[in-house]
């Protein structure tokens, strides 16, 4: 049996963490992974305010203690003074993966011109990949899946197409997806027979 994929989800919002409104990021991600992944996985979640030391502590704990292979944040990536998710993510990083942020902005620009205000980053910490996602459920799904034309063919790949191979390369479990939703891309030499 393959190793169980562990996913950490961190929703960063002053108002949601204080109960002013219901967090929508974590439920949206849970639902998305429930449809997208065909290999076994489990999830750890955190709901915290926009405080850089708290974000850093949550990311370190999910990577180093909980052993999450993939950690996704939602919220706190804009230019407002309290948007400090990218700073916290970079502070705990061993290596930066700039292509993830570039592609997320590219996808979002197809929908809103303000996507250029997003400061999302992707990094590696140890054997964990950390990605800053948008805060809105619709934008989360678009970013992960990419843009499709009216026939359902991909016009712009979503970032999740590259995640399984990245996790292979940093020593995590082999991840399989529902290809109708998102097709994991790997070089031919890295593809294993279906379980």
Helix-strand blueprint:
Elements: E1 5-12, H1 14-17, H2 25-36, E2 41-48, H3 52-65, E3 70-74, H4 85-91, E4 95-96, H5 98-109, E5 122-125, E6 128-133, H6 137-145, E7 146-148, E8 154-157, H7 163-169
Parallel strand pairs: 1-2, 1-3, 3-6
Antiparallel strand pairs: 4-5, 5-6, 7-8
Task: Report on this structure.
Helix 2 (25-36) packs parallel to helix 6 (137-145) and helix 5 crosses helix 6. This protein has seven helices and eight strands, in the order βααβαβαβαββαββα. It has 195 residues and is of the alpha/beta class.
What's this entry about, in short?
The protein contains seven helices and eight strands; from the N terminus they run βααβαβαβαββαββα. The chain has helices at residues 14-17, 25-36, 52-65, 85-91, 98-109, 137-145, 163-169, and strands at 5-12, 41-48, 70-74, 95-96, 122-125, 128-133, 146-148, 154-157.
Strand content: 15-25%
Q: What would you call the structural class?
A: alpha/beta
The largest β sheet comes out as: 6 strands, mixed
Uncertain stretches of 5 or more adjacent residues: none
Mean pLDDT: 94
Give the proportion of residues in helices.
25-40%
- Specify Rg, calculated over alpha carbons: 16 Å
Determine the number of helices (DSSP H or I, runs of at least 4 residues).
7
Widest beta sheet: strand line-up: 2-1-3-6-5-4
Find the count of extended strands (DSSP E, 2+ residues): 8
Cα distance spanning the termini: 9 Å
* Secondary-structure element pattern, one letter each: EHHEHEHEHEEHEEH
* Shape summary: globular
């Amino acid at each position: 049996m393959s190793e169980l994929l562990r996913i950490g989800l961190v929703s960063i919002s002053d108002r949601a963490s204080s109960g002013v409104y219901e967090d929508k990021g974590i439920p949206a991600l849970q639902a998305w992974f429930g449809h997208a992944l065909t290999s076994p996985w489990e999830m750890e979640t955190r709901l915290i305010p926009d405080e850089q030391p708290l974000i850093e502590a949550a990311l370190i704990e999910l990577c180093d203690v909980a052993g999450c292979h993939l950690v996704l944040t939602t919220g706190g990536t804009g230019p407002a003074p309290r948007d400090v998710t990218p700073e916290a993510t970079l502070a705990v990083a061993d290596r930066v993966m700039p292509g993830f942020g570039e592609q997320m902005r590219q996808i979002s620009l197809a929908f809103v011109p303000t996507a250029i205000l997003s400061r999302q980053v992707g990094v590696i910490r140890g054997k964990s990949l950390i990605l800053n996602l948008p805060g809105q459920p619709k934008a989360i799904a678009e970013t992960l899946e990419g843009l499709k034309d009216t026939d359902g063919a991909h016009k712009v790949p979503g970032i999740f197409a590259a995640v399984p191979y990245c996790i292979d390369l940093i020593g995590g479990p082999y991840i399989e997806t529902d290809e109708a939703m998102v097709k994991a891309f790997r070089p031919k030499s890295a593809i294993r027979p279906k379980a």
